[in-house]
Structures are given as C-alpha cells and as structure tokens.
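Forwarding the complex inputs:
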Amino acid sequence: MTAPSGFTPDTAAPPAGQGGAAPRAATAPAPDPAEQRRRDRRSRRYRWDVRWSPYAFVAPFFVFFAAFGLFPLLYTGWASLHQVELTSPTHMEWAGWHNYSRLWEDEFFWKALRNTFTIGVISTVPQLMMALGIAHLLNYRLRASMFFRVAILTPYATSVAAATLVFALLFGHDYGMVNWSLGLVGLDGIDWQNGTWTSQIAVSTIVIWRWTGYNALIYLAAMQAVPNDLYESAALDGASRWKQFLHVTVPSLRPTILFTVVVSTIGATQLFGEPLLFNTAGTATGGADHQYQTLGLYMYEQGWVNLHLGRASAIAWTMFLILLLIAAANALFARRLRKSQ
Amino acid sequence: MRRNTGSHRSRAVVLAAVAALGAGVLSGCADDGDDGSAGSSGGGDSKGKTVVTVGTYGVMGFKQAGLYDEYTKLHPDIKIEENVIDPASNYYPQLLTHLGSGSGLADIQAVEVGNINEVTTTQADKFVDLSKADGVKKENFLDWKWAQATAKDGKTIGLGTDVGPMAICYRKDLFQQAGLPADRDAVSALWAGDWQKYLDAGKKYAKKAPGGAAFLDSAGGLFNAAVSGGSEVYYDKSGKPIYKDGPAVKKAWKLATDASASKLSAKLQEFTKPWQQALANGKFATVSCPAWMLGQIKEYAGDKYKGKWDVAAAPQPANWGGSFLSVPQAAKNKDEAVKLATWLTAPEQQAKLFEKQASFPSAQAAYSLPQVADAKLPYFNNAPIGKIFSQAAKDSPTQVLGPKDAIIKQNFTDVGLLQVEQQGKSAAEGWKAAIKTNDNALDQ
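Prediction (whole assembly, two chains):
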C-alpha cells in the first residue's frame, strides 16, 4: 500500500548500459535535466494515479458504509449492553448481557422468531417455485415477451405500503374481496386477521405477490444461459417439456436457485412492512395475539412503541447473528454442492 | 431526429432525477440549519417573513378552521407552516428523537394526552415554561387540563387545545324501532349514573335489534369510555402503575367483556377500515362519543344517516383524549412560537375550532361564548352539543396520568379485548394477555 521504496525521484537518467536496456533508450538523445525531472514527476504522478485512484473511486461506498452501516451496527451492539430509553437516548446504564438473557425468557421474542420462520417458509417456498415455473414459461418463444417480462416486474416496483394496504382490504372480514369470492362458491368467510395460519398466509401472499416476478426474472436470465443443444439432445432422446425442465433446466440453475434462496431467506428474516401494515389498526403488535408479529416488528415495538432502545438493539443483534448463521449454512451447502458436481 | 430528442429527453429526465435527489439530500441536511425557510413550500413569498413551523399528528384542525390564515392576516410578517406526521403513532417517537438531539424540531410541537405525562416528567427541561408567557391565563383552562401539562416544579410545558368530554352517540331511528325511548333527554335518563344501565338498555335493544344492527361498536370503545371516568386509572397518585388491580380498570374491563359476552357489540376495532365500513352500513346503534368522535361519525357514516344520529349524555362524566401545544427550547423562533401557541389556545380561537371542527375547547372560558353555548349540529338531529359537552367537561374528574398511559390503554383494547371479541377467547384469557403485554411494555 505504500509508495515503492526503490523509487527515488531525484535520480538522474538511468545509468547507461545497465543490463538489457532497451535499444530505444540507448539511441535517445541525452535529455536535459529539467525535462528529465518533469518527466519523472509526470511518471510518478501517473504511477500514483494508477495505484491510488481505484481506492478513491471505491472510497465513497466504504465511507458511507462505515458511516451508515458499520458505525450503527457497532453502536447498536454497544447499546444492546445497556439500558437505554428513547425518552433520554444519551443516558445509558450498563446492563451487561441482561438484554440478551431476558430475550431468552421472553415468550414474545420466541413467538416472533417462530412466526418469522413460518411466514418465511410459507412465503419463500411457493414464491420460488412459482418464479421458476413462470420463468420457464417466459423462456418459450412468446409474442410480446418483452411486455410480459416487464409486467411481471411491476409488483416489485410498487411500494410495500400501497400493496399491503390494498391486500389488507382484500382480506377484510366483512367487506373483503377474498371472502366475497369464497362466498360465491358457497364457502364461509375466513377471518384472515385473527387466525394464526390465516393471518400468516395472508401476509405471505403479499410477500409472494411482490417478489415472485423479481425472482422469475433472475431465473429467466439464468435459463437463457443454458446451452440450447442440451435441450435439443434431450428432445432427440424423447424427453417431454416437463422432463426437460426437470432434468436440464433445474440442474443448470442450481447456483442461481441457491442464490435466490439465500436472498429470500434474508428478506424473510427482516420482514417488517407487510405485517405492520396488514394490521388495519396500524399497531406493531402483529395482531391481537401477536399471531403474525415478526422479529422485525417486535424490534420496532420494543424500540419505538415501548421506547426500550437497549432491548430493541439486543433483538437487532440477535437478528444479525441469525443472518450470519444462515450465511454460514449456505456457504457450507454451496461447497458441498460444488463438490458433488 | 425523433430519436435524438428522445435521448435528449431521457437524459434530461435522468438529470432532473439526479438533481432532485441531490436537492433532497441537501435540503435534508439543511433542515437543521438556522435558515428557517428551508424546505418551505411557499418559496418566494416567505422572503423577509418569519416562518413559524407547527408539528402535528392527524387532523388538529387549525388549518381547516382557518386559524392560520387569520393569524397571518393579523401578523403580516409571520408565515405558518404545518408539518403533519401520520399516523399519530409515528409522531411521538420522532418527537422524542428530535428532543434528544435538539434538532429537527418544529417551533410548536403538539403532544397527545396519552404522552403528556411522560413528556412533562422526563422532558420538561427541553420546553419553554408557557405559564409565564404573555396573555396566558391559567384560569381560562379547565383545572385538570392545566395540571396535566404542569411539572412538579410548577413549570407548564403545554397549553391545552381540545379535550374529549364523553357523551353517547346513538341512532335515534334504531332506538325507536327497538322500542326504546328516542328523545335525547329520555335516553340520557335511561342510563344516567351507571354504565351498567347502558348495558341493560342494550339488552332490551338486542331483543328487537332492527336490521341486525348491534347495540355498540366495540368492547374497546366501551372500555375506554368507562375507564376514562376514573380519577386513578393506570397509575395511582404516587405514580405507581396500578393497571393490574386498579378499580377503574377492573370495572371497565368487566363492563366491556360483559357487553361482548352478551353479544351486544359488533366486535369491531375502532378507527380501522372495517369499523368505518360498519358506520357507513349502519351496523351498530350506539358509540361512546368523546367530542372528537362526532367528526368521525359524520365523515364515515355519510349523508345517508344525516339526522338519524343523536347525542345523549354519557352514564358517567369522563374525558377521553385531547392534546397540548408546546414550544421546545431548541425552537428556532421561540418568541414567535410562544405568541402563536398562546393565540391558538386562547378561548376565542378554541371556540372557533369547535364551531368548524367540533374539537371541544379545553378553555372553559370558551364555554360561554355563543359558538359553543349555542352550538347545534344538524347532522346529529340538531343536538345541543355545546351544552352536553360543556356539562361533561365540567363534571369530569381530575385524572391522574402516568408516563405509559397511551401504550397501556392500547394493549388493553388492541390485545386483551380484541382477543376476547375477535378471537373468541375468554375474558380471563384476554385479561392475562393484556397484563402480560403491558408488563413486557413497562419492563425496562
């Protein structure tokens, strides 16, 4: 990282005849010393430029990351070891591991963890399977395929707030469209807000709606990189479209699928906006019985409703550690996958 | 050629977007600077004028009632800007963060009654003492309202705006069809003195419930109405939390769960979309009605029910809700802010606010003004709401407030009673859940 030590700017021209000097240098007229110094300076600047400019170019990201990513992360960790209230955020009392040990006994925390897991599963699994199917369909030669590819991304482009508010209306008990359509086929209305599974399914629906298209596009991009002759030879062997999908497409997509699984899992762990807004009363409890309160929502409730910043920080760090665990598990899994290939 | 303009246009769009983003970031930073006009929407006409900012949640009604316009006419060198943060639950944490950092504060900040005790006890040194401001008269305000925003050392950090004296709004036509008295004095007499009588009337109503409309909207609403009549509710006089065994809480809880068990309630959660839809469809006959509730009913029930609603006195006097205006020490235009806050909360202005927005004055001096004393609302069958609510306000007990009133109340209604009403749990289970959630919320 330091400047090359052998480089001394005031040295005069390189000693003539030093082993292997280029013939051009030998034929060049002896430069006058001032010109030589200017050249040296220029070449020094050039070398510094080459050496340091890339750092300057990437610096803004890392400076911002340090200010808005790393520092808050560390400060949150520090705060999680204290008792801090939002009413006086600067007044911190050392609490050691109390906030963490308290979480261990906190049934609301465990419930939120469980909910985060179940909502994560029932939103991620169908979402990725549907995305795969849709990508497969879009991969066919279609008329106006560009239109469909853009259309499928539109849910991703809508704001969580707008989408969730609409879905909360659709899932309304008395005047919601979902129950109305159930009524049309003679089924009783379902209380989407109050049941544990029903509310979690409703929240997952919003997640699925928003992210399926996004994942489908990623799959589609990967699918287009699959060599066409694989399909041709499979077709020659008499494999149906479905068999081709199973035995050619899916195996070729394995790394991509792994990537989307990881990204979706991270997203599911941090799920916040959908369950917050699905509650029509706008409170952070995640339903009367906390039946769809996720970790993110519980952290928000602790920090910004109950005003306990220390405990909210402990939850935030616990979530961070859970994500690290997921990343580690994924790395292990990816390595085994690579070995098996 | 066309293509060329297209690419020019798209480049212009990108540039504009970048510029807008950049400006947003810059103005975000500049907001805390001493340039009072940063982020002003008015632009040119703010030149040379002092901009006084007012931070509020929801609809406080000052702007709607034309009070800002009137003030700027009286003081041509002032410009008023209101920053509304919705929903109200997002407003309070933000106010606390701004107070903590001493920046980003509006010159006037509104505080809700559920938070006023916490602000008064923990943040008093960050606010201006308004009792010493010119033109502020303690005797203008209801005693208990004044006391709520006054710290132990006698410093008053908030001037009362509205209060929420309690009445019962009822559907006159449904009462008639169910064979109950429909005249407002007779209805008031029907349950005078005891909330239990209100439930008894409900049971009579339920036998003939016209059109399947429930007697009341929600157990949560009844709970809030009944509990607000106590003098010690969630905290006792010494400041100890008594939400587990306080008599007012227990009594209100029993009433609310009884109403639910007797199937008198439409099982709604107040202020949610389904509740608004139920109002629009006439699904319940009565609702506990602090003065500010009139606006909600009028807005959501709509023209269809004009003249069919009426207002009767509540079984017991109570106060539910209300707000305060305060001026932070870190305000940019402290002096102008104090003047404006004083003017906005003066009896004359509170009377105007009531006339336009039905926010009931906390200034008792306003009750004798014609805008209040003679107020009648055509929507509510010309009920003399001025008289009904003044009486309720005067009879309301001085309530002991505590720092966590807002959150405790919310957990009782949105966790406990909602479990009973909407999830079919027993009253005991709901109670346990509410207490557990409250213990968790208060545990530091």
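The CA atoms of residues 420 and 430 of chain B lie 6 Å apart.
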